[in-house]
């Protein structure tokens, strides 16, 4: 992952956003530490939520609302949440009561970025959310 991000950051003008979950300190250092050592500006945001919120979000990915297919994620959940809450995992964004646009706004403001205004009306926004949900459903 380091090599890909290093290449993109070397060629791309502006901000590069890499959505990924890093919960192991060694991987964090291997990827983000090396990027910093290579002279890249790196901002890391840990999106956090209470256990029950995460479980509810995982249930939304299944048509049956069962967590059977999410057994691996559920088994790792407590450890991941605990590690992500530690200081080395950067800026914490509590997402329990935030919408996706609110999370994006909070991160942009913290990173000194300005986002284009969302031109979606309520219906289009809802349809987009349904589309994302459908694409992430696991059968």
Observed structural traits:
globular, 6 helices, mainly alpha, 139 residues, two-stranded parallel ribbon, Rossmann fold
Verbal overview:
The chain has six helices and two strands. It is mostly helical. The chain has one domain: Rossmann fold (3-Layer(aba) Sandwich). The longest helix has 15 residues. It is globular and about 45 Å long. It starts with a helix and ends with a helix.
Which helices and strands appear, and what pairs or packs with what?
Blueprint: H1 2-11, H2 25-37, E1 45-48, H3 51-60, H4 71-84, E2 91-94, H5 100-111, H6 122-136
Fraction of residues in β-strands:
5-15%
Rg, rounded, reads: 17 Å
Q: Overall 3D geometry?
A: globular
Largest sheet: 2 strands, parallel
- Proportion of residues in helical segments: 40-55%
Number of separate structural domains? 1
Examine the secondary-structure arrangement and name the CATH architecture: 3-Layer(aba) Sandwich
In short:
53% of the residues lie in helices and 6% in strands. It is mainly α.
